[in-house]
Amino acid sequence: MKDIQSTTDPGSDIKHVSVDDVDIEMAVDDEMVFVDNCWSSAIMRVENSVKHLMDKHKVKVVAVVKCLLLVLYLTYFTYCMYLKGLYLLGSAGVAVYIGLDVVRYNPQNIQSLLGLVVFVGFGFVFSTSPARVNWHPVFWGIVIQFVFAVLILRTPWGYALFDWSGHRVEEFLSYGNAGAEFVFGKNYRDHRIAFAVLPVMLFFNSFIFILYHIGVIQVIMKKLGSFLSFCLACGPVESVIASANIFIGLTEAPLLVRPYLKHVTASELHAIMTCGFASVSGAVMGTYIQFGVPANHLLSAAVMSAPAALAITKLMCPETMKSYFRDEVKMDLGLEKHRNVLSALSSGAVAAIKIASNTIANQIAFVSLAKFVNMTLEWFGDQAGVPGISFGLLCSYFFYPLSYSMGVASHDCGKMGEMLGIKIFGTPILGYAELASLRRNRFQLLDYVAKHNHTWHWQGGDVILEATNQTLLGGIMDERSEVIGTYALCGFSTVTAIGVTLGTLVPLAPERKPDVVRLIIRAFIAGNVASFLTGAIAGLLFNGQSFQ
């Protein structure tokens, strides 16, 4: 050790010490020695166990943490219902989640944000009274959709729950095939819609009647209606209609509030029609599933359509009058009182005949008219030197920007635009049939590639499997585009549905005919926008992980 010198200032008793350098011998092991005892040993074992657990189950632990954060956000969401000043914090929470999870792992999903902005902006610009828009139901309607989409598309347990539910629904609907086979024979599926799909509609509609007879439907609609009324601050008439349309069609749902139709405001009347256009009944949903549409996404789309419809209807036709109904309304479907379950079963089957006959008539009429239109357009195109023009081709170009704004891949926007045109101007069944065909093609191609090592190519709009000399007509779509299409096509907002709605509401409330006629086109557009909004949110949160 070197010398340490000290000096003393004149006139001062303070001694200053200066250190030139100090040599310190470093030990080989600098770790402090702790006295081992029971307490420190127990803590050490816990610490090592935690480290081992984190190293072994890191992915699962992260998933659990995300789920806990989601639960905390849901709790926070409930608290926000009472404090309107927290809208900014709610928006910040959604933005942070998008930034940390969506942008980080799926940056291509940001394309769907364009759709959210476009659809909300469209509803505001074309609102009946933009200055009177109450943003509470609009904001929280979109947030509820976002939360549902996170549960279904971003959490393994949420996806597994809806996937399990979807398989159970498919299994349940398959029992309807027993009756069809008994009546029509084993080859009944050769008649694609008439005998293969419509028996499912009869079977499922009978089941709905049974649930209504024993009171299950009323309880579910009441609870869902109360939840929507609580979250969106909407009236009981609107919330009951929104929840009812998840199970029953746009012709049956208005019967629930038939005594109140002559007293509802214009905004509430618009909401009744919009909810009908934006949703599908249980029987029709069963038909889509029979075509091969994924049941789990179809179920979630049916649930998400309720808050979406309420959000868009309150944006495009805000409340400007005082509503007479702010308390509970008594629901009455107007069905005959059944003496027992068998009577309800029989009535449900008979009532479904009307749905089935309308479906058959619409399919025959639209397919025939579409064939005529396509041949006419093709003839005019040939005369003008532009071959290949068809109704589907025109729709693919017309709805291309709409498809792109929802997040559909650019190479799939043409196919999606064609399906949207078929759904809006024709029937959703044909749109879903085309989507199911493209989905089967993708699965067939994946199976083929696993066996034959990518020996395939595109030829026009079709996929050619070279090793087996097969042609996949229509080609394929990305899985993300398929999911967006499942949500965007979910709804009964077709041109033919306008006539159905008029034929339902006008006889129930003749004195409201001028209002119904004035608002029905706006409600038709709002129903489509609600479906497109749901598709955009699905596109924003789709991640295509292994659990999907």
Please describe the topology of this protein.
Elements: E1 4-8, E2 15-19, H1 38-56, H2 58-80, H3 87-105, H4 111-125, H5 135-153, H6 156-174, H7 176-184, H8 198-214, H9 216-232, H10 236-244, H11 266-278, H12 282-291, H13 295-316, H14 341-383, H15 391-398, H16 400-406, H17 413-425, H18 428-452, E3 456-459, E4 462-465, E5 470-472, H19 479-488, H20 495-508, H21 513-541
Describe the structure.
The protein is mostly helical. The protein contains 21 helices and five strands. Helix 13 (295-316) crosses helix 21 (513-541). The longest helix is centred in the middle third of the chain and has 43 residues, at 341-383. The radius of gyration is 31 Å and the shape is globular. Mean pLDDT is 78; it is low at 1-24 and 26-32.
Give a quick rundown of the structure.
The protein has helices spanning 38-56, 58-80, 87-105, 111-125, 135-153, 156-174, 176-184, 198-214, 216-232, 236-244, 266-278, 282-291, 295-316, 341-383, 391-398, 400-406, 413-425, 428-452, 479-488, 495-508, 513-541, and strands spanning 4-8, 15-19, 456-459, 462-465, 470-472. With 548 residues, the chain is mainly α. The termini are far apart.
Describe the structure using short key phrases:
single chain, mainly alpha, 21 helices, 66% helix, globular, disordered N terminus
